[in-house]
Amino acid sequence: MANHMDNPATIKDIAKRLNISLSTVSRALRNAPDVSEETRQAVLSLSQELNYQPNRLALSLRQNQTHTIGVIIPNLDYVLSQMVRGIDEVALEAGYTVMVCQSNESFGREILNTQRLLESLVDGFIISVSSETKSFEHFKKIQDRNLPVVVFDRITPHLSAPSVRLDNQAGGFMATEHLIEQGYKKIAVLAGPENLGISNSRLEGYKHALKKHKIKLDQDLILHCDFNQDYAYYATLELLSMKKKPDAIFTISDRMAIGAMQKKKKKGLQMPTDIGLVGFNNEPVTGLVTPAISSVEMPCFEIGKAAAKLFIETMHNKESATTIEKILHPKLIVRESSLKFSA
Amino acid sequence: MANHMDNPATIKDIAKRLNISLSTVSRALRNAPDVSEETRQAVLSLSQELNYQPNRLALSLRQNQTHTIGVIIPNLDYVLSQMVRGIDEVALEAGYTVMVCQSNESFGREILNTQRLLESLVDGFIISVSSETKSFEHFKKIQDRNLPVVVFDRITPHLSAPSVRLDNQAGGFMATEHLIEQGYKKIAVLAGPENLGISNSRLEGYKHALKKHKIKLDQDLILHCDFNQDYAYYATLELLSMKKKPDAIFTISDRMAIGAMQKKKKKGLQMPTDIGLVGFNNEPVTGLVTPAISSVEMPCFEIGKAAAKLFIETMHNKESATTIEKILHPKLIVRESSLKFSA
DNA sequence: AACCTTGCCGGCAACCTTGCCGGAACATAA
DNA sequence: TTATGTTCCGGCAAGGTTGCCGGCAAGGTT
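The joint structure predicted for all components is written out below.
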C-alpha cells in the first residue's frame, strides 16, 4: 500500500525515515557501487512503499536535458498524422516524450512554435517545414544552442541537418511513366507551391519520365497552385480550357487529385477513357471515390519512425555528420483512374 | 547583438556583470516594487543584450507547475486531429504547451501514456478515453495528485470531471428522423463497441426517433461492431442477408458508413432508392464518394477549443464543480445517400 | 608501528529561480 | 534627540537531484 500523501515522496523523505543521508539514498537508487547491500535493500523497499518517483524537473535541471523532443509540423493531415505516429512510437520506446506543434502552414506560427519549444528546453527538434517558410532564421537559433535537429518529409537545403524523406523524384517518375505506358500523350501536372521542395522533386521525376520516353516538355502543361482541393479545381478548369488540352493529369497530392476529379466530372469527362489521373500519397480516400484514383504510396509511418531513430542517433553522437540522408521508396498503386488498357 | 555564448544567460550572469545581487535582478525582471528605477533599467537592458530567457525548469521546480497540459487521445483520425488543433489553439494563447499522446485505442498504452505524462509533471490532463478502456484505475492516480482533468468527446461516467462533448443523442435522433421522413421503414443501426458511450448515446437518439414516430424497435436491426471500415463491411453483409432486410442503415461513424456502402455496392443495391445511408462525423470523404453520404456534422474544432478553455478555467479555480458539462450541437448534412424524395 | 587500501557514508555545492527576512541608508515626524 | 517610516538591496533557504570530495573505521601490507 502506498502511503496516502498529497505530495509525492522525495529522496529526502526516504533519507529521513531511514536516518541516512540524501547522498546515500541517491546512490542506492541508482545502483551506484559504494552502498552496502543492506542499506540498498532498505532504500529500495521503502522507496517502493512510498511509491517514490524521481522528480523529472530536478533531474532535468541538474543534468541539463529534458528527454523531450520538439516536433514541428505544418498540419495534422493524413500523411503527417501517420508520420507523427511513427515518431511517437520510436520516441516512447527510447524514453522520450514528444511535444507536437502545428504551424498550420503559417510562417509566423512556425517561429512562435520554435520559440516556445526552445523555452520548454526540449533536447532537440524533428521538423517538417511549413510551405510558407522562405526564411530560416528561426531555425538558426536552434543550431546556435547546439541542439540536434532532424528534418523530415518537407526538407529544405537551407537547413543543414540529417534528413529523412521519400524519393519524391522516383514517385513523380513512376506516376508519369505509368501514364505514358497507358497511352496518354499529353500529360499535365498540377504542382504545389513553387518553393516547396517535395513538389519540385516530383516535378523533376515527371520531366525525367518525359525525357526517357522522348516526349517534348510543354511548360504550359505545368501549373503551380496551392496544396488544396479548391485551387486544384480551378487549375483543372484552366487546363481543360486550353486549346491543346491534356489527356491526363498527374497531381502532386491526393487533395489536388480530388479537386481535379471533381472538375473533370463536372465537365462530363470520363476517367480513364477521356482523361487519366494519378495522385500522390495514397490517402484512403483515393480508393473510395469513383473512379478510384491511382496514387503514389509513401511509407508515412516508416518515415516517421526513421526520423525519430535518426534523431536519437544524432543525439547520442552529437558529432555525427549532418549529411546523413535517409531516403525511403514510393510505390505506385494503380487504380481505375489511369487504367486505360485493361479497362 | 546578442553575445554569442553556447550556454544561455542566467540571472546570475546579469548579477555578476552589474555587481548586484541575484535577488535584485530577479525583482527587477519581474517588475517587483522595491527596485530603483535606475537599477531596473540597467537590468532590463542588459538582459535584453544577453538575450536572457528565464529557465523554465528552475521556474517549474520552484513554483511546482510546468505550464504543460497532457492530452491523451485514442488516435489521430480526422475528428481528433481537428479537436487537437482546437486544444492547441487555446492552450498556446494561454501560455500552455501541449503534450499529445496517442493510446492507439489500446488500454495498456493509455496507462503507459498516463504514467509518462505524470512523470513529466504536467499541470493537468485533457482526455478522450480509448474504446478499449473499461477500468479507470490509472486515471485515479491523476486525481490522487489533485491535478485538474477535463474529458472530452469520448467521455465516461466512471471519471468524474468536467466534460465537453457533442450532443450525441441529438445527432442519432436527427439522423434517424431524417431517414424516417424520407420514407424508410426498416432502419438498421451499425453501432460501435458496446461499452463506448458516444455510440450508445447515438443509439439512444435512434431509439427516441423511432418511438416518436411510433415505429417498433427491432433489436435484430441493431448491430455492434468495431469502429472500423472492415467490420462494418461484414456487419452490413449480415444485415443484408436477413429475411426482414432493412431499407436504410444509420452508421455511428463515417468509417463504418464507407464500409457499409462498399458492401451495398457489391450487392448491387442502389442508394438511396434501394437502401438509404446516413453516417456520423461529416468527414470530408462523405462528400466525395458516389453517392455522397449524408452525415451528422460535429463541430470538432470548437469542441477542442471548449475543452481547453474549460481546462484552463478549472485550473485557475481548482475548487470548481466537477459537474460542469459543456454540450455542443450537431447538424445534419443531407446528401444523396439518403435523399429518396427529391432524387 | 606506520602506512595504504577498501568499503561505506555524509556534507557541500551546483543546476536556476523566487519568497522571505533583515538591514543599511536616508527622510520625516514627534 | 529619539522614534518611526521608506526605499532599496543582499543573504539565506528552498525546490529535488546528483557529482565530487573528504572522512572514518576496519582490515591488510611493509
